[in-house]
Amino acid sequence: MKQLLLYSLIIFGLLACENKTTQSTIDYESPKDSISENVKRDFAIVIHGGAGTILKKNMTDEREKAYRETLEEAIRTGYDILKNGGSSLDAVTKTINVMENSPLFNAGKGAVFTHEGKNELDASIMDGKTLNAGASAGTTNVKNPIDLARAVMDNSPHVMLSGEGAEEFASEQGLEIVDPSYFFTQSRFDALQRIIESEKTQLDHNDKHTSLEPDLKRFKYGTVGCAALDKNGNLAAGTSTGGMTNKRWGRIGDAPIIGAGTYANNATCAISSTGWGEYFIRSMVAHDISALMEYKGMSLKDAAHTVIHEKVAGLGGDGGIVGVDKDGNIAMEFNTEGMYRASMDDQGKLVIEIYKDEN
Ligand code: ASP
Q1: Which of 198, 202, 286, 335 would you label with 359, given CA atoms 20 to 30 Å apart?
Q2: What is the pLDDT confidence band of residue 21, given thresholds at 50, 70 and 90?
Q3: What residues are paired with 225 via a beta bridge?
């Protein structure tokens, strides 16, 4: 009798354990079929040059041409690397370099100004094959922050470096160091003055902290980013920015935060974000898209749509993402009036767009 009772207890215990295991295990059903949107590309690349209130009526033909030309130069740089069998990491880095070296975008040369009239740059990069990542925040003299992020990933035991330490590491790595005045552009400086002026007016009427929000809402986000899939099936993403005009107190946005501004995982997708960084950090935008694909089996398109239009917008934030999935499907999703963006696939099909509903 005693033995029977003992056996019953053991069997009951085993059943209970099994039940518990089942309940606490995430169903890692392969998202293979569900994330494929009918294409299987050898390689693909997509870029953004920032989102925001970008309206045709506020754009001169000359300026629009300059944007389209630089977007094309950037994407062709990455496309050539991928076409010749290069890695997605190299494609992402070199593509972003082109946009960092242009004064048109809020990254590298065209970085926006902090409240104190300085330029503090952030960047990050991620390798979807190894899930290695590198990032730098708040640097003032590194010409190409994406190169620094890459060096942090490749040549340091850390993921993110900031400020003077990051600058010291950059010069040890032999990266190009410039005088901070290299980042001065008159239009960005004038933008800072306009915001400071309007802030002063508001401060006369409102409470100090709430009054900062409406100003931020008018932003054009000029961050640059790239996501790519190479011929070996490896995904990579990178993002580089000057942050947001009038930022202060050493503010860091989403761009250098792995999971918010940048994420890549060979199992799902590679994503680069642009937008109101505080909301993108709180929504963990880039990783969230990957997680919806991995755990819910959503397509890149649906996952990106959910995160940008429901999650970020639901909190009151705005901006967008570009992404590519493991099959070469491309997404360019935003909830703003426009987003500078371009893509190319293995057929050489080039898309360059700026405004909403552009075809
Ligand atoms: N996301 C960037 C930041 O908040 C801004 C941008 O996208 O332009 O720093």
Answers
A1: 286
A2: very low
A3: 48, 239
